[in-house]
Amino acid sequence: MDDRTVTGRVVALLDAVAALGENATLAALTRATGIPKPTVRRIAADLVIRRLLERSGDGYRLGRHLLSLGLRAAEQHGLRDAATPYIQDIFARTREVAWISAMSDTSFILVDSAFGSNRAEDLRRRRWPSAVRSDLFLASAAGRIVLGDHPELLERERERPLARLTWRTPATWNQLSEALRKVEDQNVSVEQDESVLGYSCVATGLRDPGGKLIAMIGVTGRTGGFDPTRLQRPLLAAADDISRAVAS
Fold this sequence. Notes:
By secondary structure, the chain is α+β, with helices and mostly antiparallel strands. It is about 50% helix and about 20% strand. It folds into two domains: about 5-60, Arc Repressor Mutant, subunit A (Orthogonal Bundle); about 65-245, GAF domain (Beta-Lactamase, 2-Layer Sandwich). It has a five-stranded antiparallel β-sheet, with helices on both faces. Strands 1-2 form a two-stranded antiparallel ribbon.
């Protein structure tokens, strides 16, 4: 939405980049924000200089300075401090990539992670979902936690074709809806080879005292290297403990 103030246009542009994900071209940002294209180009160029945006192919992506700000915000809200011991414990138990991501309106950011040298290359190679409007988001365990909590996002996504990232990605919206029903029933999302072949993930949500989803905690590893279903109970217990610590 273009409220015609400088601040409003900057925020609208950043929100649009987060929502569009890999499709944040100049034309797409102009359509999404309603801001004239020359103004979008000028604001985006300034945000790139300030490291709030980065050029990516023929479009833009969120910049590294926003990552720094997001981490500081998570620390100020106590999420990172509360979660770190549990992330370390889960890593020690599994030797896989343990992680926690914080939520915003349209995306989530990796707050903390723990992994060994045997998984460092995996962390670099594996794509991590960030924007709500992305195929990777729909196929990932963390993304499905968000979609299970916000059915309106799923309805909005139905307007476009469902892409398959691997042969195990749900092929129809009915199949994806069934996967989301399991998330709702179990409060845990398990994904095996559905976003990236060779990798599996299990995740659950953290909530504030009012029940609002604020973050996700999970474990990602190589398929066959660990059993995601065996980690459901430890993850649920960790999520409850971290949620209580953040709320106190």
